[in-house]
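Subject: Isochorismatase family protein

B.,
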Amino acid sequence: MQKTALIIIDMQVGMTWSGAAKRNNHQAEHAIASLLAQWRAQGAPVIHVRHMSRTPGSPFWPGQPGAEFQPALSPLASEHVVEKNVPDAFISTGLERWLHTRGIAEVLIVGVSTNHSVEATARTAGNLGFKTFVAEDGCYAYAQTDFDGVHRSPQEVHAMALSNLHGEYATVIKSQDAVSQLLFK
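Prediction pasted inline below.
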């Protein structure tokens, strides 16, 4: 039986430069690193996604230090890398074809930010028919002002994004449950 693919989204150096105090879940990188180590130990598929900006001067512009993967979460030569230009890792990247070619029907998504790239990718994965999971402790969000002008804390933004996904597009779980339920099933 094919194991669940771990999809790590946008864990790039530029994500560490600003806003650390304005985000939730400061243990997300630890949870992601733990999942990555366990997926690697089992020889399960790992996909690293990075955002390559189309905006000159962006920290995520190709060739800029901010576009590089965080050293602790860098891909091995044997792991698949997807470069995207929009929040959704499936748009114009070949990710869907890569998964189907390998018979992968389940994905576990982690990374940043919960309400942008994680949510967009999870929605598409679910819509494409992949059994989709999001590790709530393996992603984080930033404070944001909503459409009505109300300031929302990073935890509120994170919780709402997970709520948008759970039961409709994905199953939201804790990383420790992902290991027992998905990796060792």
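The domain at 5-183 is CATH 3.40.50.850 (Rossmann fold).

T.
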